[in-house]
Specification:
The protein is α/β, with parallel strands linked by helices. It is built from eight helices and six strands, in the order αβββαβαβαβαααα. Pfam families: RNase_T (PF00929).
């Protein structure tokens, strides 16, 4: 019988070049000022909400740096997946035979890692998107994402608790927060569209956080 604790721990050089390049980007010392931090706001569209059974259909992302949304620094890919759920098509509109240029899952992950590098990831209800990506990585024998992650749902609560203008137990959807900030939802439920909406929300939250630099630097350094 082979026990897990006898298995040889994998070294960086055991992984593909694209993972090594991604991992090495974290050797850089993180900035001390928020204006120098590259945030990547991202979203995934999936075949459903089951972490084990469902798959990523598309990933959309856009960069934020120095309190600006970098429109030209964006990312959008579609994945070729065998799994198909007609129920979720009602939400994201991605159908099985849609004429998008699609990548294999491993090629999509490669491009996503090349895009994000050591940036701080931002997502709404980030646990879902991060876990879907991590599960995809695991299917190809790769480790979990190394990036620090911020969740706009949590940040939103942080900006409202001080004034008691929030239900502490409520889980606020992207639509509800967008409505508070009067953000157009025309491109809702596409990965790229939701990433852009989340980026606008993130920008508004940055302007409402007290001592933004020290608060976010602390969150980034302390969060795994």
């Amino acid at each position: 019988m082979i026990f897990n604790w006898f298995k040889k721990k994998q070294k960086l050089e055991d992984f593909p070049d694209f993972w090594q390049n991604y991992a090495k980007s974290f050797e850089e010392k993180p900035p001390e000022d928020i204006s120098e931090v590259r945030f990547v706001v991202f979203d995934t569209e999936t075949t459903g909400f089951d972490f084990e059974q469902d798959r990523i259909l598309s990933i959309g992302a856009i960069a934020v740096k120095n309190k600006r949304i970098e429109i030209k620094d964006n990312f959008e890919i579609y994945l070729d997946q065998e799994k198909f759920n007609p129920e979720t098509v009602k939400i994201h509109g991605i159908i099985q035979n849609e004429k998008f240029d699609k990548l294999s899952e491993i090629e999509a992950l490669k491009k996503f890692l090349e895009y994000i590098q050591n940036s701080v990831l931002v997502a709404h209800h980030a646990r879902f998107d991060v876990k879907m990506v991590n599960n995809a990585l695991a299917r190809h024998g790769l480790p979990k994402l190394k990036n620090k992650v911020l969740d706009t749902a949590i940040l939103y609560k942080s900006t409202r608790i001080a004034t008691n203008l929030i239900d502490r137990d409520k889980v606020y959807s992207l639509d509800e927060i967008a409505e508070v900030y009067n953000i157009d939802l025309t491109d809702r439920h596409t990965a790229a569209g939701d990433a852009y909406i989340t980026a606008i929300i993130f920008m508004k939250l940055l302007s409402r956080l007290k001592n933004t630099n020290s608060y976010l630097i602390k969150k980034i350094k302390n969060r795994k």
